[in-house]
Each structure stands twice: as structure tokens, then as C-alpha cells.
Write a structure and sequence with these properties.
Layout lengths: L11 H7 L3 E3 L6 H5 L12 E4 L3 H14 L3 E4 L15 E4 L6 E4 L4 E4 L5 H9 L3 E2 L10 H7 L6 H4 L6 E7 L5 E4 L5 H7 L8 E8 L1 E2 L5 E10 L3 H11 L7 E9 L14 E9 L6 H10 L5 E2 L2 E4 H5 L11 E9 L4 H11 L8 E6 L3 H4 L14 E9 L5 H15 L17 H8 L3 H11 L20
Parallel strand pairs: 2-4, 3-4
Antiparallel strand pairs: 1-2, 5-6, 6-10, 7-11, 8-9, 8-10, 12-14, 12-15, 12-16, 13-14, 13-18, 17-19, 18-19
Helix pairs in contact: 8-11, 11-13
The structure holds flavin-adenine dinucleotide (FAD).
Amino acid sequence: MTTSASTGTAPYEELADTVRGELILPGDPGYDQARAVYNGMISKHPAAIVRCSDTADVVSCVRFARQHGVDVAIRGGGHNAAGLGVADDALVIDLSRLRSTTVDPANHTVRVDPGCTWGDVDHATVAFGMATPSGFVASTGVAGLTLGGGIGYLTRRFGLTVDNLLEADVVLADGTFVTASETSHSDLLWALRGGGGNFGVVTSFTFRCNDIGEHGTIIGGPVLYDFADTPEVMRWYRELLPSLPEELSGWIGLITIPPAPPFPEELWGRKACAIVWCYTGPHDKADEILEPVRTYGSPLLVGLQPMPFTVLQSAFDGLYPTGLQWYWKADFFNEISDAAIDVHMKYGAQLPTGHSTMHMYPIDGAASRVPADATAFAYRNGGWAGVIVGVDPDPANAGRISQWAQDYWTALHPTSAGGGYINFMMLEGQDRLRASYLGNYDRLAQIKRRYDPDNVFHINQNIRPEGVPGF
Ligand SMILES: Cc1cc2nc3c(=O)[nH]c(=O)nc-3n(C[C@H](O)[C@H](O)[C@H](O)COP(=O)(O)OP(=O)(O)OC[C@H]3O[C@@H](n4cnc5c(N)ncnc54)[C@H](O)[C@@H]3O)c2cc1C
């Protein structure tokens, strides 16, 4: 392994001698590319980045950082809203080169390396007609999405991603290694199921896989309505969704129709209320089950069709390439109230850029049958995770998109359930974090004290170790 001279106070040449992965320091040719994350609004300057080649490299990095008093950032897919995979002056444990998966079709499980994206996992499992619940975008990292909870197309039917997390290998703050499962370090598994990157560096995830569609072919796609129809569509959707079989899920949002195929040219740039549906049940029942969503109202477009699950999962990846400016605001909602719909109409009419949007993702069905204290993820009331994102390629628009998202959120928040999904938030402080974990925060703080009393892993939505002075 080669590297340039050490920087700062830590002797990085010693770390270079220990790890097999690539050490990248300020001034190295690849440094700017290695420090960049998905959210172009984030520009951090770490002291060093190690692209780990195995778990031993992770252990070396954790021990080195502790010994030399360097902050530790952990990078999985690099998609975090607040850009928490990197930090100024930190040692970045970059897992992006660890991207293997191992499917066990007989046992319906998949073992996943920590640098995988959901596209990697879907590719591996859908070949066997199976999937693990994840999100709505394939390029998102498995690690960060899982550790925050994981809300996606399969949530109604099979629960959150964390409800399907069976086991995790973890390098702890003292450099030791444990496997967390229901039978070993079960408190750690509980905390990893929604508590974020607070408890150690996860070096392997094992998930349950579920049979979907006809050997992985589902029926899905968008149904688009004129923006003016939003109030009626939202009222219809909020009543209909709980009555639908759990094989069918759909998120609702306010969008600008992208100016690109497969959307018909006459719709390009038009504001719309969108519902993106995904039906994972048997296809001989599809016509009957999808009938109400195909026939309601006067849609601009009904884009439902059979497709491999991987195609629906990656449908938005091209529209949202890496490096755009993103400003995120989030809340959970127990209901979509009439007052909320008024707010959506006001701010949906003001979507500041073509990429800016509001989405509401259902957390009902299987996810809401898991008790709120069974995992760290607490909001399981059968409602929605709402997200407002101001997005644009041009950094000059950062202020405008941020202001719109903040104003929208401020007006909508009184209609919310209180907290928000940590994976859809920028850093918003401890009160907000407590509100997002409800009664589970205190147990998380106790487990944090047990596994990371010195708060080594604090570049995240940080749970403070309970009762430890200074935190
Ligand atoms: C376009 C887009 C779409 C999204 N859609 C969804 C969605 O549909 N559903 C959903 O639930 N979420 C969604 N998200 C949110 C997503 O879950 C978070 O952004 C998540 O943090 C991304 O994980 P990552 O590994 O890519 O992030 P990173 O930036 O690499 O890391 C995120 C956080 O996790 C920690 N971390 C990363 N790897 C590890 C590890 N191995 N061990 C311990 N801690 C670790 C980091 O310290 C950091 O705090 C979306 C995000 C984007 C940008």
C-alpha cells in the first residue's frame, strides 16, 4: 500500500503499514473525489480516508483513531441526508469497497457486506424471486438505511428493513468484534434496529428474504394526477390504503413530472400528485386488486405494468444522480388531515425546482404489528414517514430550496405525530432526536453507555451515553 506523508498530529504512516486498503490523505490525487458524498451541499475535509479491504482494516482504524484521539466517521453508501459518512478532521472508515452478497435460497437469507447498495442486494436476491424490504431507491447504502429503520415498497407486507435484520457483525468502540443476534448481544441487535451508527461499525448484515411477485416480477409504476386534483386524491388515498391487501403498497407525493422519457412529452414539467404503486402478490389476482387504483379519478398517466422488482427499485436513480444539492425535512404522520392537505396545496404549488418534492411513505401493515418497543425504531402507528426535500443541481439555489423546505415543514409540522425519521433529517439537535425515538431513547442511551461509553461513534444522529459526564 502506498501513501503520502502523515498529516495533522496522527502518524498515518503507521496506519498505512497496518491496513491493506487504500489510505487517502489531503493532497493525494483522489482526495476530493473520496471526500465527496451524495449530497452536494456537504463539503467536509477529513484528516484521512481509509477504503477498507476487510474487517481487520476496520479494527485497525478504530484502534488507531482511539489511540490518537481522532474522530471517526463511517461511510457506507454515502447517501446520508446530513452527509454523516464524512466529517472535518475525522478518520473516515470508508466501506464502499466491501460489496459482496451471499444468498442462501434454501433458508431465505442474504448476507451483505457493509459497502453494498440496495441495488447490489436486489440484484442478488431477485434472481431467486426474493427481496428484503429496503427503500424506494437502489443507489442508497444498505448500512445507513438499515441502521435508521428502512422504509420502502415492501414495508406494508414484510415490515421495515430492521424487522428483517437477523444478525450483524460489529466492530465495537474498543476494537473488539461481536456478532449481534437474538441469542447473542440481543441488546445490541435491538439498538441496531433503528438506532443508527451509534454502536459500532457493522461489517456484515444478515437479512431475511421474502418471496415476491411471480419469481421477482411485480406490477408497479406511477399513477399521476393533475396537481389541482391533489385534495381529492389525498382524501381518497388516505381512506383506501388501509383497506388494501398488504401485497399492494403505494407512496404519495407532489412532484414536477420529469422532462424525459418514459413520461409523455406533453406532461413534461407539469406539477402533479403522484402515487407510485407496487403489487407483489400473485398475478392472477392483480386485476381485481389493482382495479380501484387504475380506475379512480382522471389520471394524467397510469404507468402500472409488470416489471422485475429491480426495475421499480432503480426507477428514480437516473433522475437523482449523485452530487445534487439536497435540503431535507421530515416528520411522521398518523393521518393525512384536511389541514395537512391545505398545506400541501400551498407549498406543492411552490415547488422551487424540478427535483424538489414531498413524499409520504406508508408504515402500516406488517410494520405496525411490531410493538413500538420491540426495536429502536418507534413510530409504528400505521401512519406515514413524510419527507420534504429541496433539491437542485445548482449550488446557487441552495438557499432557495432550503428555505422552501423549512417553510413547508414549519407549516406542516403541527399536523404531524411529533418526531421524524432520522434517515430523512439533517442534524436537528437532541430534542428532535428524542421526539423521533419516543420512549426508546432512554434504552438506546443505556445501550450506548454499555457499548460506546466514550461516544467514539458520534458523527451520526447521536445518542448520548446515559449518565456519562461530558455528554
Ligand atoms: C435519494 C435517496 C433516497 C432515499 N430513499 C430512502 C427510502 O426509500 N427509504 C429509507 O428508509 N431511506 C431512504 N433514504 C435515506 C437513507 O436511508 C439514508 O440516507 C441513509 O443514511 C443512507 O445510508 P448510506 O449507507 O448510503 O449512508 P452513509 O452516508 O454512508 O451513512 C449514513 C450514516 O450511517 C452510519 N453508517 C454507515 N455505514 C455504517 C456501518 N457499516 N456501521 C455503522 N454505521 C454506519 C454513518 O456513520 C452515518 O451516520 C434515501 C436517501 C436518498 C439520498
